[in-house]
Amino acid sequence: MTRVAFLGLGDIGGRMARRVAAAGMDLTVWNRTAARAQRFMSDIASSASADRVRVASSAGEAVRGADTIISCLSTSADVESVLAGDPAVLRSLSRGAVWVDCTSGDPPTSRRLAATLAGHGVAYLDAPVSGGTTGAEQGTLTVMCGGELATLDRVRPVLATFGGKIVHCGPVGSGDAVKAVNNALLAVNLWSAAEGLAALRKAGVAPDVALDVINASSGRSNATMTLIPQRVLTRAFPRTFRLALLDKDVAIAAAFLREERVPAPITQLAAELMRMAHAALGEAADHVEAVQIVERWAGAEIA
Amino acid sequence: MTRVAFLGLGDIGGRMARRVAAAGMDLTVWNRTAARAQRFMSDIASSASADRVRVASSAGEAVRGADTIISCLSTSADVESVLAGDPAVLRSLSRGAVWVDCTSGDPPTSRRLAATLAGHGVAYLDAPVSGGTTGAEQGTLTVMCGGELATLDRVRPVLATFGGKIVHCGPVGSGDAVKAVNNALLAVNLWSAAEGLAALRKAGVAPDVALDVINASSGRSNATMTLIPQRVLTRAFPRTFRLALLDKDVAIAAAFLREERVPAPITQLAAELMRMAHAALGEAADHVEAVQIVERWAGAEIA
Amino acid sequence: MTRVAFLGLGDIGGRMARRVAAAGMDLTVWNRTAARAQRFMSDIASSASADRVRVASSAGEAVRGADTIISCLSTSADVESVLAGDPAVLRSLSRGAVWVDCTSGDPPTSRRLAATLAGHGVAYLDAPVSGGTTGAEQGTLTVMCGGELATLDRVRPVLATFGGKIVHCGPVGSGDAVKAVNNALLAVNLWSAAEGLAALRKAGVAPDVALDVINASSGRSNATMTLIPQRVLTRAFPRTFRLALLDKDVAIAAAFLREERVPAPITQLAAELMRMAHAALGEAADHVEAVQIVERWAGAEIA
Amino acid sequence: MTRVAFLGLGDIGGRMARRVAAAGMDLTVWNRTAARAQRFMSDIASSASADRVRVASSAGEAVRGADTIISCLSTSADVESVLAGDPAVLRSLSRGAVWVDCTSGDPPTSRRLAATLAGHGVAYLDAPVSGGTTGAEQGTLTVMCGGELATLDRVRPVLATFGGKIVHCGPVGSGDAVKAVNNALLAVNLWSAAEGLAALRKAGVAPDVALDVINASSGRSNATMTLIPQRVLTRAFPRTFRLALLDKDVAIAAAFLREERVPAPITQLAAELMRMAHAALGEAADHVEAVQIVERWAGAEIA
Question: What pTM value is reported for the model?
Answer without folding.
Answer: 0.95
